[in-house]
Write a structure and sequence with these properties.
Length: about 325
Amino acid sequence: MSAFHFNNSSSRLIVGVGSALIDILAHEDDAFIEKAGAAKGGMLYVDNEFIEQTLQGSKAEPKMVQGGSACNTVVGIGQLDGVARFVGKCGSGPMGDFFEAELRKQNVGPALLRSGSPTGRVLSIITPDAQRSMLTYLGASSEILPKEINHQHFVDAAVVHIEGYLLFNPDLILAVLNAAKNSGAAVSLDLASYTVVKESREFLQRIVKDFVDILIANEDEALAYTGESDETAAIKALVETVDIAALLVGKRGSYIAQGDNVVSIIAKGTGHAIDTTGAGDLWAAGFLYGLVNGYPLQKCGEFGSACGYEVCQVIGTKIPEEGWQRIRKLLE
């Protein structure tokens, strides 16, 4: 039996909306984070020059990959042979071309707007405890105008998945929410970062109540949003105004609530996390893939957990093919 009823019931399309970014991955220690002025485990907005200056103090050659929270999620769905599209804005130069080519390569339909500004980038500082602390230059990704969002972006979508980072642009996120709802899609919102939640809490609570069907948060984000540190209380608070809520609690697994029904998901795998970058994004990929394909909540959570585990075994957000093969076995 399906875990959720979709208005566009014949569709499996999931559309991600968010920042089109290039991730720059650097392995450093806590002292580097302190010197850079980053928020441990959180995200701060900076300019491109600040990222360049910070990188000059890095000991190792950083690695560059395609990124962005909602983009990571739909790329995961594409890798699961799901139907995926990404809406965002990037530069018109080589980095923007790289971004679009990577989407197509990974089975995601690009709905990209272009800009004369540089493609955005994120310096993701990975510490030995596998935490990632991010310094973000949005570049072209911040230039999407509300009037550029329209119904065509969401035609036939079962789910529109929105990253919480868009909360810093209230007019834009409202345009996305309205267009998504007008298309008949369910709206999924990932709270993205506890720093985002803290700064946008009042507005966030309002739009969740009015627009959101599926709400996804980790424990830090849930605490910032609900004020609850207890996991049972937090998941119940998260689901109060939505149809489905998910609470991710790292090595302890996750909880999924639909009404009064709360499902506990055991974390997959026992390997030590190398890098938690994209763990929540890929968890959302497996979970949403399961939902649109009619799996019960328990199975959706297991798919999410498997995707989240596999991405923590690599640096960055690209799960290798052998990892995807292990995940796909769960679908059989």
